[in-house]
Amino acid sequence: MRAWMFERTGNPREVLALRDLPVPQPSPGQVLVRVRAASVNFSDALIVRGTYQLRPPLPAVAGMEVAGETLGDDPATGLSAGTRVAGLTTGLVGAFAEYAVLDRASVFAPPPSYSYPEAACFPVAFQTAWFAVHVRGRVRAGDVVLVHAAAGGVGLAAVQLAHAAGARVIGIVGDEAKREVAKAAGCAEVLLRGGDDLVGRVKETAGGSVHVVVDPVGGAAHAVSERVVGFDGRIVIVGFASGQVPAVRADLAMVKNYSVVGLHWGLYRDKAPDVVVEEYQRLVAVVGEAGIRPVVSSVVSFACVPEAVAAVESGQTAGRVAVDLGLPTPA
């Protein structure tokens, strides 16, 4: 099979190489999937660079999220050959290949109307966003929700889900092109990082303060969150895309009576897998009722994986980027 492998960590454009490898063999409790599409996540670049909290043994095949069909009937997993699935690869590597192995607990049935690229972009971003909005953030109808990086993968999903829950959503993005994407996803107001008085504009739009903040950025974004969150509010920390881990002002949390809560969705799969199953069912029901689809801004061929990973890492993409293994190699 063809696969994008890295034998050393570094710049994705430089270290990812296309190789012919044997088809991986699943162990008991695992599923072999013929990959039809894979999504490109910011974390993929971190893993290739060796800066992610998980560091797989090398050499490794890059990528963590796929959609495709199962191969072979397996009574142990309850899946028959040809079942349409999406999910996370074992060890968060191995997705940018023609075949991939997934742990059974990481295999999900995507919404039936989704294309393969859409299905590949659904499990991580939407489950992370769902847990941020509903499990950790406890968003209710009428709440005002601030979403940092509102045109990114998790950010866009959070905007869509909070809007569907009846919240008024304020988004913060990095450039004008992303402003329109976030607006179309459900933001009532979209502010430009570096171009707007963020604290003043958020307070003005929110009518004083916000109830919930979803923050995949960290760094300076957290300081904005601390100033705009209101009484009994929640700041949900999802990640540190800025590369900076902020200091949490415990004094402000006490004086203003708000909570700062972390979200590591992957940990739920290990510590509370039943919760993941229950919440996924709720998520799929909501996206079906609301007609929500992943915002896939770019679908590239398998030959373009290194460039796609680098583009997502750069922060220049709006929405999700997917790799379609059925697309021809560009001339």
TrEMBL record:
Top-rank taxon: Bacteria
Residue span, Enoyl reductase (ER) domain: 11-323
Entry-linked InterPro entries: ADH-like_C (IPR013149), ADH-like_N (IPR013154), ER (IPR020843), GroES-like_sf (IPR011032), NAD(P)-bd_dom_sf (IPR036291), Zn-ADH-like_protein (IPR051397)
Xref: Pfam families: ADH_N (PF08240), ADH_zinc_N (PF00107)
GO molecular function, one term: oxidoreductase activity
Protein name: NADPH:quinone oxidoreductase family protein
Source organism of the structure: Nocardioides immobilis
